[in-house]
Design a protein that fits this description.
With about 400 residues, this protein is an alpha/beta fold. It has two domains: about 300 residues, Thiamin diphosphate (ThDP)-binding fold, Pyr/PP domains (Rossmann fold, 3-Layer(aba) Sandwich); about 60 residues, no CATH class. The longest helix has 26 residues. The termini are far apart.
Length: about 400
């Protein structure tokens, strides 16, 4: 077992894990209340893998994840209030309420998003690392993905390019033993996922993903190799999600006894006890971390509830980069007279009448709809990104 770091670091690790745990628990509760829409994938039980990874990253490093990434964004520095607002689909969310649970994104903290396509983030991670090379940055891209993604074609292609081009990228497999409802023994011929990229020139190691200190040390070495030696590696972290694959998962594929056995390895409680037993932290510090996590989550829900929903007038904003082109980016077929989807302000009268009727039904005020390309974002009041009118 790896040695504990100093008291200040132990407190920070514990506090972040507790915050993520409480956030996820509350997110599940709000989903049941129909406050959060779409799908919801919780990472309860995987906090050590998340926090152990982010705790050794530099501010300039990039992180990219899957669709189970509320905690990843929070651990990277995103305000929990904005993450909760995104789950609620509100304008103060990390993506203005457009992404929801599966697409948390925070460019400021270099968290480059969650992705709903299994393995879809892998080639993007290689692209981020390649961009760092082009720009001469000393940044490493950390790519976290699940065990199921190691079976995709993207996996092999990404590993090959990462090794071939000696990209500054580090890969971490969050192996929670199930790809949705399929156990790793049934979906992967090679169950030692740390070896799956050796043939492409990317070596790997295994680590206990329920031990935040062990993850921290393993990731630190992987990032060092990527930054200093331009050597991509894989770390397979064994972890476990205590909830289903998603909030709609009936969990008929695993026994209750298995879940209870893993609950005894709870990463937050185990680390808290370890710090107490070693005398690194006291009961007061542990309780303080719990209380702060509770308060932060209460404030996040209040903030999300108070944040308004995006106006219907902003429906087409941030969808297209409209430039001088003769092509149509999209076709709006809400009326017998189709029009260019990106030119809401030039819709036929019949389409406008239907749109106004829909707005009235939703309680939205009547009025002209701004063109997001030519008039900026009406929601935030920013300057237009494309000046002038776009010719048909």
């Amino acid at each position: 077992m790896a040695d504990l770091p100093d008291a200040a670091t132990c407190y920070e690790l514990l506090a972040r894990m507790m915050l993520i745990r409480r956030f996820e628990e509350e997110a599940g509760r709000q989903y049941q209340r129909a406050k959060a829409g779409g799908f919801l994938h919780l990472a309860i039980g995987e906090e050590a893998t998340i926090v152990g990874t982010t705790s050794v990253m530099r501010d300039e490093d990039y992180l990219i994840g899957t669709y189970r990434t509320h905690g990843h964004a929070i651990a990277r520095g995103t305000d929990p209030r904005h993450v909760m607002a995104e789950l609620f689909g509100r304008v103060d969310g990390t993506s203005g309420g457009r992404g929801g649970s599966m697409h948390i994104f925070d460019r400021e903290h270099r968290f480059m998003g969650g992705y709903g396509i299994v393995g879809g983030n892998l080639p993007l991670a290689a692209g981020l690392a390649l961009a760092s090379d082009y720009k001469g940055e000393d940044a490493v891209t950390v790519c976290m993905f699940g065990d199921g993604a190691s079976n995709t074609g993207n996996f092999g292609e990404t590993m090959n390019l990462a090794a071939l081009w000696q990209l500054p990228v580090f890969f971490l497999v969050e192996n929670n033993l199930y790809g949705m409802g399929t156990s790793v023994e049934r979906h992967s011929a090679q169950t030692d996922l740390s070896k799956k990229a050796e043939g492409y020139g990317v070596p790997g190691e295994r680590v206990d993903g329920m031990d935040v200190v062990a993850v921290r040390e393993g990731v630190a070495e992987g990032i060092r190799a990527a930054r200093e030696e331009r050597r991509p590696t894989i770390l397979e972290a064994f972890t476990y999600r205590y909830r289903g694959h998603s909030a709609a998962d009936p969990e008929v594929y695993r026994e209750r006894e298995e879940v209870e056995e893993w609950r005894e390895k709870d990463p937050t409680e185990t680390f808290a006890r370890r710090c107490l037993d070693a005398g690194v932290l006291g009961e007061r510090e542990v309780q303080e971390a719990r209380d702060k996590a509770e308060q932060a989550v209460v404030e996040a829900v209040e903030f999300a509830d108070a944040s308004p929903e995006p106006p219907l007038d902003t429906l087409y904003e941030n969808l297209y980069a409209v430039t001088d082109t003769s092509g149509w980016y999209a076709v709006d077929e809400r009326s017998p007279h189709p029009h260019r989807g990106e030119r809401e302000d030039r819709m036929p009268d019949a389409a406008r009448e239907l749109a106004e009727a829909g707005a009235a039904y939703a309680g939205q005020p009547e009025g002209p709809r701004p063109n997001p390309a030519g008039r900026g974002d009406a929601q935030k009041g920013v300057e237009p990104e494309v000046a002038g009118e776009v010719e048909d």
